[in-house]
Amino acid sequence: MVRFSAKGMSMWPFIKENDILTVVPCKDDSFGLGEVVAFLDTHHNNLTVHRIVGSSRSGYMLKGDCCSAPDGIVARRDILGRLACAERKGKRVRLSLGRDSFIFAILSRMGVLRPLFLFLWQCRICVRKVQGASGE
After folding, report:
1. Half-sphere exposure at residue 44, Cβ-oriented, CA atoms within 13 angstroms
2. CA distance 45 to 75
3. Quick one: residue 92, left, alpha or beta (phi over 0 = left, psi -120 to 50 = alpha)?
4. Quick check: 135 pLDDT over 70?
5. Are 20 and 87 a contacting pair, CB within 8 Å?
6. In 15-111, where do the E strands start and end?
7. pLDDT value for 112
8. pLDDT for residue 105
């Protein structure tokens, strides 16, 4: 088990900057669509946590939920473990690691997830402005 602080916003809104992530080693070689894994990004020489959005014989296609493009195919040997949990301000964060992770993987692969999140974020900001203007 490895614990570390998240950097960046590629998995926003599920994982945010400075969330504490716990990654557990893989006991087998198979991963499912939608699973969130930690892998060695050989292009940038760093540890990255992204969602599996596809697979092939040579590895898994990974993509951050808030990224516009996938990381490409990542070899199984470069995947270090599964994301077990995340904590934000001392509380456990719901990461969509259950059945709905499959849906998020499909939406991410289709390129719909990021625009949807950004739209919802803008709606949230607009609602707050309206509430502030009305004195609520």
Report:
1. 7
2. 15
3. beta
4. no
5. yes
6. 20-25, 36-41, 46-56, 59-63, 72-74, 79-88, 91-93
7. 75
8. 76
- Mean pLDDT, the chain, rounded, equals 84
Domains belonging to the chain, first-starting first, are 2-134 (2.10.109.10)
| CB 89, CB 81: distance < 8 Å | no
DSSP code of residue 75:
-
At 39 the pLDDT is 94
Rounded distance between C-alpha atoms, residue 80 and residue 24, angstroms: 8
Report the candidate in 13, 11, 79 with the shortest Cα–Cα distance to residue 51: 11
Q: In this structure, are residues 38 and 48 in contact, taking their beta carbons and an 8 Å threshold?
A: yes
Question: How far apart are the C-alpha atoms of 128 and 135, rounded to whole Å?
Answer: 10
pLDDT tens digits, one per residue of 56-99: 999 999 999 888 889 989 998 889 999 999 999 999 987 665 66
Q: Collapsing DSSP states into helix, strand and coil, what is residue 62?
A: strand
Report the predicted TM-score, pTM, of the whole model to 2 decimal places.
Answer: 0.76
Take residue 120 and report the two structure tokens written for it: 């919802």
pLDDT at 47 over 80: yes
> What distance in Å separates the CA atoms of residue 15 and residue 39, rounded to the nearest whole number?
16
